Every structure is written in C-alpha cells, then in structure tokens.
Amino acid sequence: MLRGLARTKLRKGLEVGRRIEAWQVNKTTRKQVGKLYKRMDSKMKKIGLVGCGFIGSVHYNAYCRIKGAKVVAVCDQDYKRAESLLQGENPAGNISTTNKNPISFNPASVEVYTDLKEMLKNPQIDIIDVCLPTHMHKEAVIKSADARKHILCEKPMALSLKEADQMLAAVKKNKVKFMVAHVIRFWPEYVVLTEYISKKSLGDLLLLKLQRLSPTPTWTWNNWVLDSKKSLSAALDLHIHDTDYILNICGKPKAVSSVGLKGVVSQGVDHIHTGYIYAGGPKVSAEGGWAYVANYPFRMAFNALFEKGAIEYDSMNCKMKVYEKGRPAITPVLPKGDGYLREIQYFLKCVETDRCPSIVTPKEARESLRITLAEINSMENGKPVVL
Ligand SMILES: NC(=O)c1ccc[n+]([C@@H]2O[C@H](COP(=O)([O-])OP(=O)(O)OC[C@H]3O[C@@H](n4cnc5c(N)ncnc54)[C@H](O)[C@@H]3O)[C@@H](O)[C@H]2O)c1
Prior knowledge:
alpha/beta, Dihydrodipicolinate Reductase, domain 2, binds nicotinamide-adenine-dinucleotide, 12 helices, 8-stranded mixed beta sheet, Rossmann fold
C-alpha cells in the first residue's frame, strides 16, 4: 500500500541527504549516480523485495551496488520497517550489513507496500525477492509465481517437503525462474574450496569439517526465528547452509547421524552436529548452533584435509589458508564481491539470459531441505537415518 504523505516526507528527507549513508557522497559521485539513472533501459531488471528485516536489508544493499538492477518496490507488513530500509538503516543481525557503495538508483522512486498481494499487481516488477520469515515462504512464492514473477527466495526453501513441492509445482506451472538463496555456494572462501576439491589440486579430499556458530538470534521480527514451528530452529535456519554446501560438493550421503541440543533457547534443535556417511568417500561432518551468548561472535569455519595438504578458513580472523606439502602456506586470491552480491548478480544474469539457475537448482534446494530434516530426525531419535 502506498502512503502519499509518508512518501513525500521520505522524498524530502532524501533530498537533503538526511541520515542516508549511501546518499552522503560528494557531488561527483551524485553526478555518476545521475548518469546511471539515464542509462536504465528496458533490459534493467526491476525488483520487488518483500520482508524488510535483517536479510531484506542485506539484499537491498546488494541491489544498490548492481548496475543492471533496480529495486522498484519494497513490501513489509510494517510500513516503518520498509521506510527504514530505504533510508539505509540496517536492522541488527549476526553479520555486517554496511552499504559500502553509493546506490545505483534513487530510493525516493521506490514504491512502498504493506501487502504482497498489492505489490504483485505492479506490472513493472520482473523479480520478487522473498526475504520473509521461513513459515511465509510457501505462500509468498506461490503467489509470486502465479503473478508470473521470477523469484529469489531466502533459504531455507520451506519448513516441509510438502510445502517445497507445492512451491515447485507453482514455479513449474507458471514457467518462472526460481532460486533459493543458498549463499554459501557464492561465498568467496567456499567457492575457492570447491575449486580445490573439484580440480583435486591437493589430491583427494580425505576429511571435511564445517562449523557455523551464532549468538542466539534475538533480533528477528516478533522473535519468529526462536519459535521452532516457524523456523525449525538452528538446524534448519542456520546449519542448512553447510548441509547444502556438503551435498553440492560430496553428493548425497548414504546416511546421516546427528547429535545435538534441543530446547536450550528455543523449543527446537538449537545445536546439531552431523556425520555425513559416504561409502569409501571423505569423512564429512558439520556443526551448527545458536545457543551462544550475545557477545560470542558469529563464526563460520571449515577445515579440509587432502592427500597433499590442508585448507582452513575461520570468519573470526577472516583468513583462509592453503597449506600444500613442500610449499609455503598461502592466502588464496578470492573472487570479487561478497556472497550476497554474487548470488544476486548470478540470479539476475539467469533472468536476463533466460536460463534456469544451474547453481542451486530448485531440486537441490529441496534436497538440502530433505537431508536437513533427516538430520533433525536422526538427532531426535538418537540413531542414523539411511537416505
Ligand atoms: N542467507 C542468510 O545468510 C540469511 C540470514 C538471515 C536470515 N535468512 C533467512 O531470511 C528470512 C528472513 O529472516 P530475517 O532474519 O531477515 O527476519 P526478520 O525478522 O529480520 O525480517 C522479517 C521481515 O518480514 C516482515 N514481515 C512479516 N510478515 C510479513 C508479511 N505478511 N508481509 C510483509 N512483510 C512481513 C517483518 O516485518 C520483518 O521486517 C528467513 O527465511 C531466514 O532464514 C537468511
């Protein structure tokens, strides 16, 4: 829903450059931004972003740095949250969301809605970016597909395979492009690790250990993420990042065997540690949990042991190191851009070139959900689950 007065106020606010980090740039930069508007042509993809919370702001900041995209509409059930997003305010979360570059479109030209149904009527929009709480993904994706919009949907795809299948059916029926934002596939350090594994530069992979630990997420809207019925807690909200990565590089395991903690900060699985069993393949494990105190820094890490070396990464010190037998340790050159930017750029390219995403296919996103659900099952029942 558009609110005339509020939007006029917002526009005025923007005009004087108030509180807008991205707008606090010198004249030259503004000129450059102005030129960019002129270059906007019919090829430019127009985005409607729904869910202006933590990850919505991360996505919005990424679009602001992409020349071939324009956010034309944002939607949040709370108008103020949508307004804050446009003003460059970043809600709290467990990763930094600073907007480093000037924005490539004018936030005052963005339509603000409080109802997705209304936003979907906007004929300008090519792509809907779903950044809603997980329990709302299914409905938002189906509605967007029925409105013939391409869809980028935050992970996890859904809460159940039934929901996932309904979403996939709607996407197929309407012939729209669909990608679940499994960002780790695009995260520079993990991309480099994938290359080492697939090219066997250090020989065969023998052992892979992944870790993802977070302070308890107390910052979400109405605390939805700690309601295990809406998020399936840390296992599905956090740990699925690593499950998805493992499936992508090692394929489907024969079985998963998980242990962990339940009911520490939510009613669900707050910490999970899984062994992925591959017949004759590498020994693979991943651990994810969010029962950590507020001053514990968010941490993602991996350790990979190969026949002829090892690779290690820890977000706590931001260092990735490659140790190769007989050579000095090196810090590899990483692909440019952060994971979110790269993921969004990739999806935009797919839409632009009329190709279905081949990185994170809908089937793969469903499989990541299926295996994570099996991990939860294994942990809750105290025995391995054969897949
Ligand atoms: N890829 C990642 O690294 C990553 C990180 C965090 C969250 N996520 C995922 O992103 C999704 C959102 O998580 P978040 O942390 O941003 O949550 P959040 O609570 O910060 O934001 C959710 C937003 O949705 C809005 N909203 C709720 N109901 C709505 C409705 N009916 N219509 C419009 N807006 C509505 C809320 O007002 C809020 O602004 C989840 O699926 C989560 O798992 C992904």
